[in-house]
Amino acid sequence: MQLNVSLSDLKRHAKTTPSAFISLIICLVFTAWSVYVSRNIWILIMAIPFILGLTLIPIKISQMNKELSDQLLPEYVNYAEEYNISEITKDSLNQRVKVTGKLDKVIYGISTKPTIRVKDNTGEIFSNLISPVPEGIKKGDIIELYGIVAKDYKFFGIMGIPNLWKPKIYGIGVRKI
Q: What residues form the membrane-spanning segments (predicted)?
């Protein structure tokens, strides 16, 4: 497994995956505190694999997702049907779509996959992207979102109460217009 990671990759990763970065910081703090209190260097030596894992595994997953997005995006650009947000209904489930609108919100949570909210003049829709928002795209930009219509359950995420869901887009890629 080859992993080329630069300092700029680490900074971007810390910004786009705050939960992984916070886990790494907590691990480092507890390790430093344990070594300081116990004066036992073996604690640090035993913690090194965990620290490397908390650093490199999320970065590798993010890189793999970006490569997948880069691979699939040209196919979606060619074959996805363009929709206004109001046209995306429960009947559109599993359809490839292209939505053009304003990037209204970017939410980074536990995973390396952000959730974005896109608005056009007909409505708004949430999208879970498979990779972080590309550099240079920020809130307020007009974007093209490519993906597949999926279910967004109101209460329990991916498994919810039947009939209490609305459409969302499982985002394959985003391009700035």
A: 20-36, 42-59
* Residues ≥6 apart with Cβ < 8 Å to 111: 17, 19
Indicate the pTM of the whole model: 0.77
Q: What is the pLDDT of residues 91-113, one digit of tens each?
A: 889 999 999 999 999 888 766 67
- Roughly what angle, to the nearest 10 degrees, separates helices 18-38 and 7-16? 110
Q: Are residues 44 and 92 in the same domain?
A: no
- Does residue 177 sit in helix, strand or coil? coil
**Is the distance from CB of 109 to CB of 19 less than 8 angstroms?**
yes
Tokens representing 132? 């972080």
* Structural domain count of the chain: 2
Residue with tokens 């490569």: 67
Residue 127: per-residue pLDDT: 93
Q: Are residues 72 and 92 in the same domain?
A: no
> Distance between CA atoms of 30 and 55, rounded to whole angstroms?
16
The secondary structure element, H or E, covering residue 151 is strand 142-153
Domain assignment of residue 2, yes or no:
no
